[in-house]
Amino acid sequence: MSELLIKLWDSGTIQKGIWETVYMTFVSAFFSYLIGLPLGILLNVTAKDGIHPMPWLYRIVSIFVNIFRSIPFVILMVAMLPVAKLITGTSLGNNAMIVTLVIAAAPYVARMAESSFKEVGGGVIEAAKSMGASDMRIICQVLIPEAKPSLIVGSVISLVTILGYSAMAGTIGGGGLGMIAVSFGYQRFNDDIIWICVLLTIIIVQIIQETGMLIARKTDKRIR
Amino acid sequence: MIQIENLSKTYKTSAGGFTALSDVNLTVNDGEIFGIIGLSGAGKSTLVRCINFLEVPTSGKVVIDGDEMGTLSKKELLIKRRSIGMIFQGFNLLEQRTVLKNICFPLEIAKVPKEQAVKRARELLELVGLADKESSYPSQLSGGQKQRVAIARALAAETKYLLCDEATSALDPDTTRSILDLLKKVNKELGVTIIVITHEMKVIESICDRAAVLDGGNVAELAPVSELFANPKSDIARKLILSAVNTAEEIKGGRVIRIIFDGETSYKPVIANLILSCQAPLNILKADTQDVGGKAFGQIIIGLPDDEVLAERVTKYLDDNGIKFSETEAV
Description:
- The complex is a heterodimer.
- Chain A is mainly α.
- Chain A has a domain at 19-174: MetI-like (MetI-like fold).
- Chain A has helices at 3-10, 13-46, 55-70, 73-79, 81-88, 93-118, 122-130, 135-169, 176-186, 191-219.
- The radius of gyration of chain A is 20 Å and the shape is elongated.
- Chain B is 35% helix and 30% strand.
- The interface between A and B is medium-sized, with 25 and 34 residues.
């Protein structure tokens, strides 16, 4: 083990890195869902076979989402730094990175949510309509609750994706395990630091994945 | 009362328009069980969805208890739909809700206080015979049980009409029978007017009072079920009635007749008497009858003897005894 690794551990840099990665991932995911989930609902509801078809609105939102989804994250990240500065007052640090992460992840979340909502059968929605349920009620009491297990599975996938993005954000001014792996491991030729970061990321991903799937299974009333 | 006047529905397709319904006229009286039968693609499902305006007709009117559906505001339409329950082939229960909560759903829509809603839901569970299943989830129920829950749910909000869209088509014969019995009970005990959509003549035969035969978006025939059975006037009705018997393929030569049972007593040995008194060897080609409360419904297809004198004797016996029959082609 290199001296640097021991020093980083003793000074708490690695522990801080773990915390920063988790922090960036979850806070970004939270805001991504705050924006992405309503977008996903909008996409589902206004689609041609949705509850309230509005083809023009669907197209606009869809194109908008596609644009952000098609830009590779490294490019989007640097391109969005001015926006981050506008919102947080700086283009450095974890909070600035969270802004760019949210801009990248929200459209992704929107598509994930859209596909979860699509899994809710048209028949159930038709039944709700036949009972005289309003569109809003169908969204809140049929679409979301019926899609819940699938939404949870989707959020696990989104979290892991955001965690991957957050490592990249570490290279341009964010913190976290990505930053440690690059600046202490890669740039100073300490392979063991890189591998420690890889290992820690794997552990975090495993924990997210297993807990998420457990919650999804527990909530789903279809599996007995 | 449901009045459907000059109803047409055309869908836009890439190849121009597709007419699902054209100029349909019919009236469903309060308290009756009305059947709509047709082959797939005849427009049955579209027609039933035009009644509660899940599909908006291209032209024509649907008037329910004096309210013309097309002129209602969006809000009024939602309120109107509460009085029209609907059940489906695929049950369409909310998978993430318990049985009790499924039945409470229409009551939530009608803003019934929770306590009252639960009480009403329990009454309905009792009615459909699933009182012990209130905290089960739909995935734990059989098809027949799911449909019972769907019926309870459709009836929860003071429903006056019940639309059944192929409600028994996904069920086995025994379960079908029990669901049909339940529908009959709902009709009798709660006075709910029922509209049954089906492609199976058996369903029409066992519970409907009157039925409309739909073919290519038109009403080909509309008559009381007994009349429809005894004397089908349209080709499509004849076809549907015969297909219900699954006529054997190898019927060769000779005259073939169809004897119709439409509610005579089932305790009379009609065929045995016929053979005994005519001394004619009859060949029963296919039989499909059922006993509904001591009355016989259905039909028997008989190959008459080749001997013409004997054959005449048989038809005369049937005429003399007022037994309905019709000559049919050897299919």
